[in-house]
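ARCHIVE ENTRY
Sequence with per-residue tokens
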Amino acid sequence: MRLRTGTAAVAVVALSAVMLLSWAAAAADGFREGYELGLEEGKKDAPLINIVWGIVGGVIAFGIAAFSAPPDPSAMRMQQLEGKSSDYKAGYFEGYAQGRQNMRLLYIGGGAVLPTLLLLVLLGM
């Protein structure tokens, strides 16, 4: 069975497209997996001391936290990434920063609200 040149070219292009799309899907899966793990670990790594910073600093501490970047992952977390793909690492770093920042804002905001709630309770009595 002989294939015409045009048919063979179409088959090669179609096969190339399938391979390229499967590679892109695998890269997206790596990014997503890294992002999800980074998000989870970033939330775990946010220290509770941020509540104290919120109590002491109030709105100013919240503003500083909102406009500053969260700390990078620890050396132990970085060792877990050895041997992972660059897409996975990029997703991890993005997710870690997002998770850590969310928890920082939650803790500092909660700490900043505590004195106000205490004052309202005391004045209400």
